[in-house]
Amino acid sequence: MKKEYIKPYIKKQTAGIMNKFGVSYNKGHREDILGIPIGNFTDKFGSPVFVLSEKLIRERYRKIYSHFSSKYPKAKMSWSYKTNYLDAVCSIMHQEGETAEVVSDFEYQKARRLGVPGNKIIYNGPYKPIESLKVAFQEGAMVNLDNFDELIKAEDAAKSINKKVPVGIRVNMDTGVYPQWSRFGFNIENNSAFNAVKRIQHSENLYLEGIHCHIGTFMLDPNAYREAVKKVVALMRKIEIMFKINIKYLDFGGGFPSMNKLKGTYLPPEVSVPPVEEFIDAVADTLLEELKPDEYPDVYLETGRSIIDEAGWLITSVDAVKRLPDGTKSYIIDAGVNLLYTSTWYNYKVEIDRELHGAYENSVIYGPLCMNIDVVVESAFLPPLPIGTRLILSPMGAYNVTQWMQFIRYRPAVAMIMEDGSLEEIRRPETLDDVVGPERIPEKLKKFEL
Amino acid sequence: MDRDKLSVLAISDSGFIFDPVTGHSYTANATGLRIFELLKEDKSEDEIKSILMEEFETTEDEVSVDVDDFIENLKKYFLV
Prior knowledge:
The complex is a heterodimer of chains A (450) and B (80). With 450 residues, chain A is of the alpha/beta class. Helices cover 29% and strands 24% of the residues of chain A. Chain A has 13 helices and 24 strands. The longest helix of chain A has 21 residues, at 223-243. The radius of gyration of chain A is 25 Å and the shape is globular. Chain B is an alpha+beta fold and 80 residues long. Chain B has one domain (3-76). In chain B, 49% of the residues lie in helices and 14% in strands. The longest helix of chain B has 17 residues, at 60-76. The interface between A and B is medium-sized, with 20 and 31 residues. Strand 1 of chain A pairs parallel with strand 4 (56-57) of chain B.
């Protein structure tokens, strides 16, 4: 009888650098996702396939909202469409009670198509075409203005529909973090925000109703939110006194981190990422400290990544193994950076679909694109992987299925594990018709002979 | 491939390999040790692959890639 085959290996013995945290981020295997064998996903939907969990999305949302609403009486949440605007995902959020936070006319139309009333949409972003502003004003959306030119554009839009409409302004400020996000909105410290309000209050077609800010992304310091709340409340007070108006809402945007591992960070996310409650506490506690009970405005959070990132995975398959000239082991998988926009700044967690024996070594994981930049994971600590091994990359729920691009291959299916454990395809894989549909060939180019 | 270097290596049955020329030490698994033995017996790479296929539950494709990869590693470590 033949002996069991284990891939040959030889490893040089070196005095390694000790890992004082005892965590190896890219080590481990998982045979299922929430009880469903990995093979079931690829058998049903092909490889690669994105997987989302309805249950985890709802649980995470409820955890965040219940904490926020238990701390602040007028807590509201709005789903950040750009984080993941698949219809099924947005529907879960709207069923939970979140309104829609959109940053483009496309997202606005997508939310309306899904059935979100205009007055349940927050329209943010640095570019809003005038036609979309007219629609948003007609439908009663909460529009947060980004700059003076947009303010004038909004005035024109409101004038053209013979209305005086409420608007908010987006503001930015120094919250003690680097880099300071200053490109969006009006700056508080240089008085630009106050001047914008002055301009709005002198307008015949606009009046101010809210203040919005979004101080950064993947923020790791909750104290930055304390600073933001203090500065925004101070601005609100100044405006209310000067113009004798009531600000109806404050919106502190998003930016809370997920448990993904940022490139360049030494500590694992379990150590470096504060619990989401600390961020909510920073916002809510500071609001309660700064506000009198009779002046509580509605306060919105637009949390995206922190709700959905850990509710998503990508299952991908090893197609080839290659030893690079410098001795580094490398693998080629069937999902590239065109599907994984976030691979630019994250080191994903990499798990394999079975227990494998052999010496672990740092390996590079390449995608299938014919591009040198197609590096999905720069360094994953993996045992020798046979062809066909499925890798489970995570967290994957935020930004990938919105920022992915069609490039040389079709975009794959997105599956959802429903609360009852059943599987649904919430986005089918693309076909050639999906890709070439918008194309037109001029008559003279239609014929050629080779 | 320079196989003379193999004769100076001290190789234990448990997979510990010591190179007295450089002072470096290595560990290999059973399959790796078997390849070492076959290399020392002056078998060609094709012969090594055939022998492994006879002895182990594996396929030609898999063993071919793995033996090439193992020998590349030996070259990287200047063991052959």
